[in-house]
Amino acid sequence: MAKGGINIGDEVVIMATVRRRVTEDRVSVSIPSYGFPHSIIDRTSKVKKGQPIELIGHVIHIDGDLATVNFGVPITVNLDTLRLANAYRPPTRKTPLVDKPT
Fold this sequence. Notes:
Blueprint: E1 11-21, E2 26-30, E3 37-41, E4 52-63, E5 66-70, E6 74-78, E7 82-86
């Protein structure tokens, strides 16, 4: 089990800071512990420079204190910067895999 109860498949939230608006529908954000600028599509809101914005994605890989999260593209960040939104629950079967004996 990973630190903080975050496992593969979990839906997580990370708080990013808006750097600037690139185009009318695209915003450049700074993600903590990522080290590179990242651009997201943001057509609905009118965020300003410096405002925090939540990014929601699914964990696809965990390696020690690092987690790779899919936000449309995979991004590797520290586990400390992530917040658990929804834990992964495997799908349940309504019928058993094996037929009943006759």
